[in-house]
Design a protein that fits this description.
Strand 17 and strand 18 form a beta hairpin. It is built from eleven helices and 35 strands. It starts with a strand and ends with a strand. It is an alpha+beta fold and about 500 residues long. The strands form nine sheets. Strands 6, 7, 8, 9, 10 and 11 form a six-stranded antiparallel beta sheet that branches. A six-stranded mixed beta sheet has the order 13-14-15-19-20-23, sandwiched between helices. Helix 6 runs parallel beside helix 7.
Length: about 500
Amino acid sequence: MILSSFRKYAFIPVLSLALLGLPQMVGAAGTAGTSDAAAAGTIIQLGTSETSTDLQALQEVLDYLEAYNIEGVERQEFLDNAIRGMVYTLDDPYSDYYSKDELESFENSVNQEFVGIGVTLRFFNNKLYITDVLPNSPASKAGLLAGDIITKVDAKPVTSSEDVARIQGEENTQVSITVNRNGQALVYPITRAHFTLPSVTGKVIPSSRVGYIAVTSFSDTADEEFAQKLASLRKEGIGALVLDLRDNLGGYVESAANIAKQFMKEGILMYTSGQSGEMQPVEITGGQDIGMPVVVLTNGLTASASEILTGALRDNGIAKVVGEQTYGKARIQNVFPLSNGSSLKLTVQAYFTPNKLDFNHVGLKPDIEVKNNAAAQLITGMYAAGVRQISVSGGPASLNINGTAFPGYIDVIQDGQLTYAPSRLLSSLIQGTPVWNSKNGKLTITDLQGKQTGFTLAAKTVKVVDGESYLELHEFQKKYPKLTWSYKQGLLNLSMK
């Protein structure tokens, strides 16, 4: 999602809308810190005689419903559904109507504010793994660890992914979590609470001078968080940067624009167009050149503000894009507060990349495509940024690269004495490109020198499970002897000599 932030900056003028006869200030434009009520701009009054007649008819319906309805539906519910009907008629998947509580929930999600115990989970092979324990969360304070397997919730066994819902709940309520940790059963009573996650995290990739920064949401503080993290990594001496925008659904426009200023002194952020269809440039000024190679990681959930930043960095010649095609949401929404405490989220502009590409419902194609494997995307991005030595370890709930934890996991399949690992992961380690031929059941890897190596179903050197291909590690090592590997207690270790 992408929003013009009322707290900071908006791309449209102030509007005054007569809704049910109640004119309201519902938008803002101005510099940072300008409040809704203090903003200046063009005022559009919607109060014609035709409008008055329409609103009178709506009022008459409400009066009849209140006087004669026997179904027990309250007036506010009638109004909410009438407004939703108007919005949904637009055939716009991004416009919506929010009650006060729904708006609060929406804003909390953008600003990384949550209620719960604070873990990320993966249900795999009939086990519920904790893949991450979020900082400052109740789970972190209670002592849960990444890699724990949740076996019971409130003393009831976990049997399916639907049991995740039993972990969720309202603030200040308690849940009992039983985990299996290295064969030991541990019970943790945890009180669900409100907590806020950072929008930006980062680190130096070990055994390199390459920095890694992940932006999970363009919250109203993401730009400040990014500037601080980048400054910190510069002090550690980085000479290249991997910017991870995977699974980032967007947020506030100005946060993305301010982060773009950390990469370019000046340039075009994007082009926008409103009802007139005229394209207007949105320019970056007063920024600073990053002065180092940049790689952006994307996937199918890289959307909105994330696509603005991705397109701007690539079209301005600053970054190379690695991963999967992005979501394809090239539309901007504003949130307009209404008199009854509810709000209208309305699409107000289309936007285009600096090269004037309209990618709505299409997405941005990466320069280097790596599908369906988070670990392979990371490794490919690191190589592209200049990392020279990479070792990988992980299991169904963990991923470590050069000894440091990253988001992702590694699935391994064992078939008797044969051990299989994802073909995309293995191909990324040797910087090769895999191509699957379903007609002859053969997977071919082409390396950087153009040499091709084949693996076949008939020889049992490749296996296909749920549409993904896996390569037998003994056979892979024979063909790529620089790879060393071991697999013990569900943990796979891979490294290149």
